[in-house]
């Protein structure tokens, strides 16, 4: 057999092995469709598993442990300065990634999904040509594009292996812990990366290009995070517009402007986390009816269908919040639609988590959005200083916030900042999706003492029947 001379046929071709891709492939296989999944770089799990979400969370856990050991001094527990074995930490990270990748491979095999490592380009609305595999082409009845996104570069800046200028993936490879580090950020990815390196011992300067941290999030939720990061970072500079990044043998210089003044900072290394762009180029989409918007994202309807009726898209490449759980849901919806089911993306409370210390999570309608849309709303905030569990954890800087319809009492949105916010936000998301009232949340009996109680306490504030806080009139 000559390599590259085979052609295959399938019900569904999935391009991209990340959350959106395997979400679509697995659901389609469960519905009885013949599925081929093609990924050119990472294989199953995509960038999220191999160089994004999961590597970041393993290192954030390490940084959290170091922080907790330091804070334990208040309790009379002194563990001494941490001794970081970088090779062992990296090996532990890779072991976790490998375990998860193996699990996905097993799930694909048991479902009969054929996974190919190859580059796919459309030659029409029903076929792609493959490079890098024995199979030269695949003809399909339907396709799902789930090729994800990549770091937005800066003119004249190269992310060279072994260089001092890193993108997110290179930073998470953790080749060393620089003494000083510059992080140019436009969102939560930069905050997480900066938190990792600060926790491991780097002196971090954060160049935030927005006027404040996380400008799309309610300011009162961001304030405790801002306070914490200010104490742990060497410097936080808001409104920093990056003008030039220059690397030399001794370090990296970043020149930026803020408030009309040009400034410069220098460090051993730099991470550029200034947004992401869709991996929609070099797919041969000009041979299909697929349309892109002005930012390069694939246009889809609520079921993930593109303007080409045979082709769907899911995840980052289709735009919207770049979140793995959103991508998985979109992939499943596309597969269900292809499989003949009525399915659409109808999420009222998309939860978002920033895995910093403290964690920040929100879902549903924010106070900021309610004000901008002139939506009637009441806001109730329960400060964690009044939480008995937060006191025992020494996590009293957090808060739980509810946005509530003042007439019906229906919960419209929620935000939580503090330890374990990643898990706590799920209850609020469920409440919003079910159309629950503040009364429902308040009457749900929560175990004592837990941080989950703060959600019912915030609802009690709305009802004017609180136990752990004084009535607002007093």
Detailed description of the structure:
With 474 residues, the chain is of the alpha/beta class. It has three domains: 6-151 and 277-338, FAD/NAD(P)-binding domain (3-Layer(bba) Sandwich); 165-274, FAD/NAD(P)-binding domain; 352-463, Enolase-like, domain 1 (2-Layer Sandwich), CATH 3.30.390. Helix content is 32%, strand content 25%. It contains 13 helices and 22 strands. The strands form five sheets. Strands 1, 2, 3, 4, 5, 6 and 17 form a seven-stranded mixed β-sheet that branches. β21 and β22 (411-417) form a beta hairpin. The longest helix is centred in the N-terminal third of the chain and has 26 residues, at 86-111. The protein is globular, with a radius of gyration of 24 Å. The termini are far apart. The mean pLDDT is 95.
Quick recap:
Helices cover 32% and strands 25% of the residues. With 474 residues, the protein is α/β, with parallel strands linked by helices. α1 packs parallel to α8 and α3 crosses α6.
Overall number of strands = 22
* Helix-strand makeup class: alpha/beta
CATH architecture of the largest domain: 3-Layer(bba) Sandwich
CATH first level of the largest domain: which class?
Answer: Alpha Beta
β-strand amount: 25-35%
Low-confidence parts? none
The dominant shape is globular
Oligomeric organization of the protein chains? single chain
Number of domains: 3
Annotated CATH topology of the largest domain: FAD/NAD(P)-binding domain
Largest beta-sheet characterization: 7 strands, mixed
Please estimate the helix content. 25-40%
Distance between the termini: 84 Å
Instruction: Specify Rg, calculated over alpha carbons.
Output: 24 Å
